[in-house]
Specification:
Chain lengths: ~110, ~800
């Protein structure tokens, strides 16, 4: 694990190829519950694992392009901004991710 | 009584619509002959831009097929132009040397594109944008050439430009004014439109006056009075239209800009009428569909000697259209002047602009850009001269706050739904009720609503829903699979078959999906269709499955899962019950519940426990989560029941074992009852079997869910084997022809029981082939729980979570 500072923590998650393509993964880091996605273009996105609508676990949702569809009521959420797409409203927290030497890191 | 001879000159939208009105008023009054210059039946000129944009084919835009002319005993001469009229002798001549007498004559020659008299305008590659031939020329040019110049920044020019962009050409749009579409839009809306179109790839030369078209033979360059010359392989002139009145004028009929008519569309010559773009009424010449159709109605009443009332009194101009994907509406007076005040809303983020122009407390005009949902309301307020002094601005500009469902209910019967064809809410509702209409297409065919530009289809759908309640199945109306594509379910399946597509990404790519990776609606559908078409080779894509089907368990509101093991025919035993009880203890299952399908549901299982629960249960998946064959519910039957005449349990188990694991467009529930008391509720199942003395009756299309429907009798057979075969053929036909997520009840209503009987029961060859394909599908199924338990990677990918602890050192 990399050296962590109090303000920003850079957390090593796993090797990239451990993440299945286009299927989410739930990651729990201390009090954070995060949905991690490896998109078709091999970029990795991370958002809070809770749909703002009824707290659906986004890690179980269907992934298309840069969006995830909540498994409970099909809310469409932009994985870059965390914004719920119209006609619905809301926003989930997003986390910065990085892939260095094929290892995935999340900044908390 | 002999019929009067009616000749229509011009086979276009206004003239033929007028004929339709005449046939409605007096079907047997006339012997009708039509002459048309183009070699086509009447088609929808408004849709030419869609043909150009590749959304539609020429066949799709035909409004009146050749059969229609035949059916109504109308003699049609296409490719033949009328060259002269002798109003005193009441005869006409054509360019093919025909001479014909008339009792009544309608001139509907429309207009010609206005070609700028520029030097070089006659060169090859200089065309207008008016008819099918122009479209074909543009498509052909795009295959050979790269650079197009469109002269004219009005609606027509922009549509042509958009089409040419779609055909892969580079496009310059030349406009003589400062602003695009200045006749429909104010400066703000026009500026927003220009910005949007520039993003789409159009290049604008504003304030440019074309000087000449250069090139030897074919066009090469366009030069301007004020600006640098540009290269051009194709020039489309879209500067306007002028009424086609030459022949009428030469024949001595009074013309000005158009052929002059009174309020009953009568010209200066006796028994000669005119309608459409060539008519000039109270000094106005109209180029939009709605006024032309209103004129047609007035003319029909007069020519049929019906009470024509005040006739035609002119129209308030309004346009609602889509320019290159942007919704635009304008009506009445929309330009600011000292006598008016305006309410404006502008949102640069959502790219929405709305302006309502008010004079003396009445709305006199409006411009909407980006969101035209209030256009109908506004137009009604303009037409009715509603006093708006009491209304707040917000009320005038009702924002869509989700109450749109009730809007049709709130409308008065006289309000217009289809502006193009002047069809009111009352007209549509009474047609739905009197003619028992159930679809937008039927309403269109019966009332003409939504037949021209099509933007009111949604409202017609709402009216159907409002009028019919639950009888209206909007699923049948949703034409495309989802917003990623314009293709219908049927089109996607047929493309998969004909193009041999074998992967979801390939389907979306080859068929031009707007979202590269699709969405949660189309991906599962495509995945299903691929599996259905290629049962042996297709590898199911778990990432295109909805969570329940990916995890083979039902997700619950708290993110836990429920597990339902298979319990064939609802029959269990002490050993299985003990296993279930042990699993419930071991994993502290919060709730054990009997399901409606006669099985046991273990609810509230944590995700990471799910594969272990399966392993300990050691029973097959009950598929309680799937768009698949679920269960076969059975009654006790002959072994114990004093009424039972048949072995319902035995047959139920046989059916369930035969069809378990089968993917279907939507869930399929079955039941077998041993007597007509029907304890297994067979008559509300997708497939329900009921035992009678010496036979099994097979019922289909029942539904006990959100839309209750009684199953209908498909057939009666005498052996268990015939039951299995019939279900095989029936379900395979459903699998192949239903739209994804269409239950058998809706599917059966759509295609009709008689049709299904003809295929599944009567056509022996089709039945055998369906059963064979069903057997292939069944032979390629795997038990999913076992598969995941024994596949480390799958199990890991789907069920494992990761916990990481970080210390705040």
């Amino acid at each position: 694990m990399m050296k962590q500072t109090l303000s920003k923590q850079h957390v090593k998650i796993c090797p990239l190829n451990e993440l299945p393509l286009q299927v989410g993964k739930k990651i729990v880091i201390s009090e954070h519950e995060i949905a991690l996605f490896r998109l078709a273009n091999d970029t990795v996105k991370a958002v809070e694992n809770k749909c703002p609508h009824k707290q659906g676990p986004l890690s179980e949702g269907m992934v298309s392009g840069d969006y995830v569809f909540c498994p409970l009521h099909d809310r469409k959420i932009d994985l870059d901004s965390g914004e719920v797409q119209k006609p619905d409203d809301g926003c989930v927290k997003t986390y910065h991710t990085e892939v260095v030497d094929n290892v995935v890191y999340i900044t908390l | 009584m002999t019929k009067r001879k009616l000749i229509l000159i011009g086979n276009g939208m206004a003239g033929v619509r007028c004929l339709e009105e005449i046939l409605k008023e007096a079907p047997d009054r006339f012997e009708i002959t039509v002459f048309g210059r183009e070699c086509h039946p009447n088609y929808n000129r408004l849709m030419l831009s869609s043909v150009l944009q590749g959304d539609t084919t020429i066949d799709d835009i035909v409004l009146n097929s050749y059969e229609w002319y035949k059916k109504n005993n109308i003699t049609l001469y296409t490719g033949e132009t009328v060259t002269g009229i002798q109003t005193e002798k009441k005869t006409i001549q054509t360019d093919k040397g025909k001479s014909m007498a008339y009792d009544d004559l309608i001139i509907a020659t429309g207009s010609n594109p206005f070609m700028l008299p520029l030097p070089g305008a006659d060169k090859e590659g200089v065309i207008a944008f008016r008819d099918i031939k122009d479209c074909e020329t543009m498509i052909q040019s795009s295959e050979k050439y790269k650079k197009a110049v469109v002269i004219g920044g009005g609606l027509l020019g922009l549509e042509a430009a958009r089409g040419l962009l779609n055909l892969g050409m580079d496009v310059d749009v030349v406009h003589i004014m400062d602003h695009l579409m200045e006749r429909q839009l104010d400066v703000t809306a026009s500026t927003m439109l220009k910005a949007e179109l520039e993003i789409q790839g159009m290049n604008f030369l504003m304030n440019h006056q074309t000087e000449a078209i250069l090139g030897s033979g074919r066009v090469k360059k366009v030069t301007f009075r004020n600006g640098k010359p540009v290269k051009a392989d194709l020039v489309v002139m879209a500067v306007g239209i002028k009424p086609n009145v030459g022949m009428a004028a030469d024949s001595g009929i009074e013309t000005n800009r158009g052929i002059v008519v009174n309020d009953y569309m009568e010209t200066s010559a006796p028994d000669v009428y005119t309608v459409g773009e060539c008519a000039e009424h109270r000094e106005m010449v109209y180029g939009l569909v709605a006024p032309l159709y209103e004129q047609g109605k007035a003319l029909a009443k007069r020519i049929c000697e019906k009470d024509a009332g005040k006739g035609y009194e002119g129209s308030i101009l309004s346009t609602k259209l889509k320019v290159s994907g942007v919704d635009v509406f304008s009506a009445g007076e929309f330009v600011d002047d000292p006598t008016v005040r305006a309410v404006r809303i502008q949102d640069d983020f959502e790219k929405i602009y709305k302006k309502i122009v008010i004079r003396d407390n009445k709305i006199v005009g409006a411009v909407l850009f980006g969101d035209t949902s209030e256009s109908r309301n506004l137009l009604n307020m303009i037409n009715n001269e509603t006093d708006v002094s009491d209304m707040s601005q917000v009320n005038i500009l009702q924002t869509n706050d989700g109450n749109s469902a009730s809007t049709v209910a709130d409308m008065s019967d006289s309000e217009t739904i289809c502006g193009c064809n002047g069809v009111s809410k009352g007209d549509i509702v009474s047609a739905i009720q009197n003619d028992k209409l159930t679809s937008v297409a039927q309403v269109r065919d019966c009332t003409n609503a939504s037949r021209s530009c099509g933007t009111c289809k949604g409202l017609v759908g709402e009216l159907l829903e409002h009028t019919l309640g639950d009888d209206y199945d909007s699923a049948c109306e949703k034409e495309s699979v989802c917003s990623c594509t314009t293709l219908t379910h049927e089109e996607v399946v047929s493309e998969i078959r004909t193009k041999g597509l074998s992967h979801t990404r390939e389907v979306m790519n080859v068929l031009g999906w707007q979202e590269e990776e699709g969405c949660s609606k189309c991906r599962p559908a495509i995945n299903y269709y691929l599996g259905m078409v290629h049962p042996a080779d297709y590898e199911d894509e778990k990432e295109s499955r909805f969570v329940n089907e990916r995890m083979h368990a039902n997700i619950q509101k708290d993110g836990t899962y429920s597990v339902v093991p298979r319990m064939y025919g609802g029959v269990t035993n002490a050993k299985d019950l003990r296993k279930i009880a042990d699993v419930a203890d071991k994993y502290e299952v919060p709730l054990l519940k009997l399901t409606g399908g006669q099985r046991i549901d273990l609810l509230g299982i944590k995700k990471e426990d799910v594969p272990n629960v399966w392993k300990d249960l050691d029973m097959p998946s009950g598929y309680a989560y799937g768009k698949a064959v679920r269960t076969v519910k059975t009654c006790v039957g002959e072994d114990f029941c004093r009424f039972g005449t048949q072995d319902s349990i035995g047959l139920g188990i046989a059916i369930e074992k035969n069809f378990e694991k089968l993917n279907t467009p939507h869930k399929v529930k079955m039941g077998v009852s041993a007597c007509p008391r029907n304890c297994a509720e067979s008559s509300i199942k997708d497939v329900g079997v009921i035992g009678v003395e010496g036979a099994w009756e097979i019922y289909v299309g029942g539904n006990g869910g959100s839309s209750l429907r009684a199953a209908e009798l498909l057939c009666s057979v005498s052996s268990d084997e015939e039951v299995l075969e019939t279900i095989a053929a029936y379900l395979q036909y459903y699998r192949e022809t239903a739209r994804y997520l269409e239950r058998t009840s809706h599917w059966l209503e759509r295609v009709g029981l008689e049709h299904v009987k003809a295929i599944v029961l009567e056509d022996t060859q089709a039945r055998i082939e369906l059963i064979e394909r069903m057997n292939t599908a069944l032979a390629n199924l795997k038990e999913p729980w076992q598969e995941i338990i024994s596949d480390y990677k799958k199990k890991h990918d789907l069920f494992e979570e990761k916990a990481i602890t970080v210390s705040d050192n």
